[in-house]
Amino acid sequence: MKTCPYGAERIQEQAIKCRFCREFLDSQGWGSGGYLRWGYEYRSEAKILGWPLIHICGGVNPRTGLPRVAKGIVAVGNFAIGLIAIGGFALGGITIAGIGVGLVILAGIAIRGIALGGIALGLFLAVGRLAISFGDAFGGLALCLGDMTRSLF
Which of 39, 53, 111, 152 has a 20 to 30 Å separation from 3 between CA atoms? Predict the structure, then answer.
Protein backbone atom coordinates (compact mmCIF):
# COMPACT_ATOMS: atom_id res chain seq x y z
CA MET A 1 0.00 0.00 0.00
CA LYS A 2 1.08 3.59 -0.64
CA THR A 3 -0.31 7.00 0.27
CA CYS A 4 -1.99 9.22 -2.33
CA PRO A 5 0.07 12.43 -2.63
CA TYR A 6 -3.10 14.47 -3.24
CA GLY A 7 -5.70 13.07 -0.82
CA ALA A 8 -3.42 11.29 1.72
CA GLU A 9 -5.55 8.10 1.52
CA ARG A 10 -4.02 4.60 1.47
CA ILE A 11 -4.15 3.07 -2.02
CA GLN A 12 -2.65 0.05 -3.78
CA GLU A 13 0.94 0.19 -5.08
CA GLN A 14 -0.16 -0.41 -8.70
CA ALA A 15 -2.85 2.33 -8.66
CA ILE A 16 -2.60 4.94 -11.40
CA LYS A 17 -5.63 6.90 -10.14
CA CYS A 18 -6.75 7.47 -6.55
CA ARG A 19 -10.24 6.06 -5.96
CA PHE A 20 -10.88 8.67 -3.26
CA CYS A 21 -9.82 12.00 -4.77
CA ARG A 22 -9.87 10.77 -8.43
CA GLU A 23 -6.44 12.26 -9.25
CA PHE A 24 -4.08 10.45 -11.65
CA LEU A 25 -0.85 9.35 -10.00
CA ASP A 26 1.40 8.67 -12.99
CA SER A 27 4.48 10.74 -13.76
CA GLN A 28 3.01 12.11 -17.02
CA GLY A 29 1.80 15.30 -15.37
CA TRP A 30 -1.86 14.26 -15.30
CA GLY A 31 -2.46 14.77 -11.57
CA SER A 32 -3.37 18.07 -9.92
CA GLY A 33 -4.25 19.90 -13.13
CA GLY A 34 -1.25 18.49 -15.02
CA TYR A 35 -3.19 17.88 -18.22
CA LEU A 36 -4.38 21.47 -18.33
CA ARG A 37 -0.92 22.70 -17.47
CA TRP A 38 1.32 20.53 -19.68
CA GLY A 39 -1.10 19.14 -22.25
CA TYR A 40 -1.09 16.13 -24.49
CA GLU A 41 0.81 15.04 -27.55
CA TYR A 42 0.39 12.20 -30.04
CA ARG A 43 2.67 11.83 -33.06
CA SER A 44 2.21 8.88 -35.43
CA GLU A 45 5.27 6.87 -36.38
CA ALA A 46 4.25 6.89 -40.05
CA LYS A 47 5.85 9.80 -41.91
CA ILE A 48 5.49 11.43 -45.29
CA LEU A 49 8.34 13.69 -46.44
CA GLY A 50 9.66 13.74 -42.87
CA TRP A 51 6.36 14.96 -41.38
CA PRO A 52 4.27 12.68 -39.17
CA LEU A 53 1.09 11.48 -40.84
CA ILE A 54 -0.91 12.58 -37.75
CA HIS A 55 0.19 15.01 -35.04
CA ILE A 56 -2.25 15.94 -32.28
CA CYS A 57 -1.21 18.15 -29.39
CA GLY A 58 -2.35 20.80 -26.99
CA GLY A 59 -1.20 22.58 -23.87
CA VAL A 60 2.28 23.81 -23.05
CA ASN A 61 5.70 22.32 -23.74
CA PRO A 62 7.16 21.75 -20.24
CA ARG A 63 10.75 22.38 -21.42
CA THR A 64 10.12 25.74 -23.10
CA GLY A 65 6.89 26.94 -21.50
CA LEU A 66 5.55 27.81 -24.97
CA PRO A 67 2.33 26.44 -26.48
CA ARG A 68 2.72 23.16 -28.35
CA VAL A 69 2.39 23.35 -32.15
CA ALA A 70 0.97 20.42 -34.11
CA LYS A 71 2.97 19.90 -37.33
CA GLY A 72 2.01 17.04 -39.62
CA ILE A 73 0.15 15.96 -42.73
CA VAL A 74 -2.96 16.01 -40.50
CA ALA A 75 -2.35 18.46 -37.65
CA VAL A 76 -4.78 19.04 -34.77
CA GLY A 77 -4.11 21.42 -31.90
CA ASN A 78 -4.41 24.93 -30.54
CA PHE A 79 -1.79 25.84 -33.14
CA ALA A 80 -1.75 23.56 -36.19
CA ILE A 81 0.39 23.49 -39.35
CA GLY A 82 -0.23 20.83 -41.98
CA LEU A 83 -1.80 19.72 -45.23
CA ILE A 84 -5.04 19.37 -43.24
CA ALA A 85 -4.86 21.69 -40.21
CA ILE A 86 -7.52 21.92 -37.49
CA GLY A 87 -7.09 24.25 -34.53
CA GLY A 88 -7.53 27.62 -32.89
CA PHE A 89 -4.93 29.03 -35.29
CA ALA A 90 -4.29 26.83 -38.32
CA LEU A 91 -2.06 27.14 -41.36
CA GLY A 92 -2.30 24.65 -44.20
CA GLY A 93 -3.88 23.40 -47.38
CA ILE A 94 -7.33 22.61 -45.97
CA THR A 95 -7.87 24.57 -42.77
CA ILE A 96 -10.62 24.56 -40.14
CA ALA A 97 -9.91 27.06 -37.39
CA GLY A 98 -10.78 30.11 -35.37
CA ILE A 99 -8.16 31.96 -37.42
CA GLY A 100 -7.13 30.14 -40.58
CA VAL A 101 -4.62 30.71 -43.36
CA GLY A 102 -4.45 28.32 -46.31
CA LEU A 103 -5.83 27.31 -49.68
CA VAL A 104 -9.32 26.23 -48.54
CA ILE A 105 -10.32 27.73 -45.18
CA LEU A 106 -13.37 27.44 -42.96
CA ALA A 107 -12.79 29.77 -40.03
CA GLY A 108 -13.96 32.71 -37.97
CA ILE A 109 -11.26 34.73 -39.72
CA ALA A 110 -10.22 33.11 -43.00
CA ILE A 111 -7.34 34.35 -45.16
CA ARG A 112 -6.05 33.20 -48.60
CA GLY A 113 -7.32 30.97 -51.45
CA ILE A 114 -10.99 30.02 -50.95
CA ALA A 115 -12.12 31.56 -47.65
CA LEU A 116 -15.34 30.82 -45.76
CA GLY A 117 -15.80 32.60 -42.46
CA GLY A 118 -17.06 35.51 -40.41
CA ILE A 119 -14.30 37.64 -41.91
CA ALA A 120 -13.16 36.11 -45.18
CA LEU A 121 -10.22 37.42 -47.22
CA GLY A 122 -9.85 35.20 -50.25
CA LEU A 123 -7.71 35.27 -53.34
CA PHE A 124 -10.24 33.37 -55.51
CA LEU A 125 -13.44 33.24 -53.43
CA ALA A 126 -14.56 34.77 -50.14
CA VAL A 127 -17.85 34.00 -48.39
CA GLY A 128 -18.65 35.60 -45.04
CA ARG A 129 -20.16 38.47 -43.10
CA LEU A 130 -17.27 40.58 -44.38
CA ALA A 131 -15.97 39.09 -47.62
CA ILE A 132 -13.09 40.55 -49.63
CA SER A 133 -11.66 38.80 -52.67
CA PHE A 134 -9.89 39.36 -55.99
CA GLY A 135 -12.16 36.69 -57.48
CA ASP A 136 -15.72 36.42 -56.19
CA ALA A 137 -17.00 37.78 -52.87
CA PHE A 138 -20.33 36.91 -51.23
CA GLY A 139 -21.56 38.13 -47.87
CA GLY A 140 -23.13 40.85 -45.78
CA LEU A 141 -20.45 43.27 -46.94
CA ALA A 142 -18.78 41.86 -50.04
CA LEU A 143 -15.96 43.61 -51.87
CA CYS A 144 -14.68 42.11 -55.07
CA LEU A 145 -11.30 43.72 -55.63
CA GLY A 146 -10.85 41.93 -58.94
CA ASP A 147 -13.73 43.87 -60.48
CA MET A 148 -12.41 47.12 -58.99
CA THR A 149 -8.90 46.63 -60.40
CA ARG A 150 -10.20 45.54 -63.84
CA SER A 151 -12.33 48.71 -64.06
CA LEU A 152 -9.29 50.88 -63.20
CA PHE A 153 -7.14 49.48 -66.01
Answer: 39
The 10s digit of each residue's pLDDT in 28-39 is: 444 444 444 567
For the question of whether the overall pTM of this predicted structure is more than 0.70, the answer is no
Q: How many domains does the chain contain in total?
A: 2
Domain extent, residue 141, equals 39-152
> Are 29 and 49 contained in the same domain?
no
**SS3 at position 85:** strand
Q: Where are the beta strands (DSSP E) in the chain?
A: 2-3, 10-11, 40-43, 47-48, 51-52, 54-58, 69-133, 136-144
Percent of the chain beyond pLDDT 90?
36
Could you tell me the pLDDT band of residue 152, with boundaries at 50, 70 and 90? very low
Question: What's the rounded Cα separation, in Å, for the pair 110 and 42?
Answer: 27
Give the separation between CA 55 and CA 53, rounded to whole angstroms: 7
**Radius of gyration of the chain measured on its C-alpha atoms:** 22
Task: Tell me, yes or no, whether 21 and 81 share the same domain.
Answer: no
